[in-house]
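Please, structure for the following, as tokens.
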Amino acid sequence: MKRYQPYCDFPAHGKNIAALSKMLWMLNSNIADHFEFTPIVVFEAFTIESYLNTIGSEHVVIWDELERLPWKKKISVLHKLAGRKEDWGKEPLQFAKEVFQIRDRLAHGKPERIEGKMFSTREEAEKVLGTMEMEPDWYKKITKQWCIDSKDRFENLMVYLGGLYNFKHIGHRMAASGGVIEHDID
């Protein structure tokens, strides 16, 4: 008797790239004017790091021991094992630094006090509360334009990282693959 079993090979970054792609797609829609941009940066960082884990788990025998390293160390290890030298001062690794600086501030930040300029009336001062003027400088970077520009920068980084180990040009876009296994059971 034959039995059939579905299977799915699910890469670590699969769901992250799917969520990120939807958010980046929405930048081109009318909804972007009312969209919170912070999740884009967070999911760019999630996707980069999970893609590093995908690459590492396929090419580094002891990756299970390394996967808890900080993202920057992972990139250094992957470069070293590929016989390459990373250049943090140039794109695309400069983009990784920028994304993770923002992500780290979001994840590990401390309370900050932002003091605005002086106003003649209380009403004028209150109008400024909740605006970008009252955001920390590091957070002000996360604008619609930064997110739009990040699409190409993100893509270039992912292709670069995959290229260290000859991954397909769009390997980071692979959400999952699967099929059906046929079993002969008596």
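The chain has one domain: 10-176. Strands lie at 2-9, 177-184.
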